[in-house]
Amino acid sequence: MFLASDDVATRLRLIEHRVEGVSVLEVNGELDLYTAPLLCTQIGAKVDGPSSRLLIDLSHLQFCDSTGLRALVGAVREVRVAAGRVAMVRPARPGAARAFEIAGAAEFLPLVKDVDTGLSALADRRG
Questions:
Q1: Which residues form the STAS domain (predicted)?
Q2: 41-73 pLDDT, tens digit each
Q3: Helix or strand or coil: residue 91?
């Protein structure tokens, strides 16, 4: 099954902004085989070396399958290879939260409970 880019955009909405020097990417909707490439592209555009600090807010994620989890693991690896720092806000919605729980995501993803905790974890500690 092929989905047009408009279909992907309606299933996964990404909102970007900066807070205190941290790139925040809010992920809303469904993260699966069809939408994961969009997320990976957005994250890849945010990684620019050791100064990269990225907070991926999954609190509004409605659904996540194994492809979505793999994409998140790959994103973390990409940021770390570039010597950047990354944190992810845990999904709050039951469906997505359950997928993370079943997969044991806390063992391989830098999950935090909320945006404030994530921003604190990524705070610039130079100076």
A1: 12-122
A2: 999 888 888 888 999 999 999 999 999 999 999
A3: coil
pLDDT in tens, 28-45: 999 999 999 999 999 988
- Domains, the chain, in order of start with CATH, read 5-121 (3.30.750.24)
pTM: 0.89
Name the packing angle between helices 94-103 and 66-81 (round to 10°). Answer: 70
Question: Number of C-alpha atoms within 13 angstroms, CB side, residue 81?
Answer: 8
Phi-psi bin for 83: left (phi > 0), alpha (psi -120 to 50), beta? Answer: left
